[in-house]
Amino acid sequence: MISLSHSAILTLARTSPRIRRQLKAWLKAGVVDHGELFPTPVGTIQGGNVSPLLINIALHGLETLIGTRFRRNGRTGFNPPRVIRYADDIVILHRDEQIVRQCQELVRSWLSERELALKPSKTRITHTLMGVGGTPGFEFLGFAIRHYPTGKTRSAKDTRGYLLGYKTRIVPSPGAIRHHVQQLRTLMKSDRHASQEALIRLLNPEFCRKFQFSGQNPKIEICDRTVSRMRCTKVCWIKWPNGCLCRVASS
Fold first, then answer.
1. How much is the pLDDT for 239?
2. Among 5, 140, 13, 131, which residue's Cα sits nearest to residue 83?
3. Smallest Cα–Cα separation from 182: which of 223, 240, 218?
């Protein structure tokens, strides 16, 4: 996660004065939450249409920088780090912890030249299989990514067919599950008198959009139980508004 400087973004945009003034106005506009205005001295507007574009402008060239610094060497068998970036969320993967730490310092130095900085609360070095300095694995874009040790029958294989001794599991993170459950509650409360068919049509896109890229996860059952419980409560509230909820809760 990157803390973005307004002056750096405007400098890197390299646009006409007119568009520059408009970008500056957007960045300084602030955010209104529950009728209260909050200033935005740094960063971009969360959810703003222009925010992804400005972030990509500010971080353009980061992947090339790491690829140039760490080149593949077939003689020694060294493979360069893998860099995955989505807007201002960055993940750097490599087998050697020292290489990852070198990448962190390289990125920090590169960002400081652009008046940018890594966010300490969102930056950490971890192992995907062993708990080094905390819980194994990491969260990225609402998903928890981790390796689990396995036996020969369930182990993943490399490109040559050799057993790795672990398998990769990508599931929605606990925070994403809580957020998704809250979205389901909001949708179901928005139209209490909808038919079952209309409710399924309303909820299906939410489930597909959230879970189509992840594997099976017992935590997803939380969403199923939430929908079932709220559906039963809704039916009982409509048919027996004078106290059936107590009997449903005790059954």
1. 46
2. 140
3. 223
Q: % helix / strand / coil in the chain, to the nearest 5?
A: 45, 15, 40
Rounded to 5°, angle at Cα 87 from 85 and 92: 20
CA–CA gap between residue 109 and residue 28 (Å, rounded): 27
Q: Output the CA angle 15-21-26, nearest 5 degrees.
A: 105
Which residues lie closer than 8 Å to 118 by C-beta, 6 or more apart? 1, 2, 3, 104, 107, 108, 111
Taking the model in full, what pTM does it have? 0.70
Distance (Å, whole) CA 239 – CA 251: 17
pLDDT beyond 80 at 63: yes
Alpha-carbon gap, residue 111 to 175, rounded angstroms: 28
Report pLDDT digits (tens) over 89-126: 889 999 888 999 999 999 999 988 887 888 888 888 88
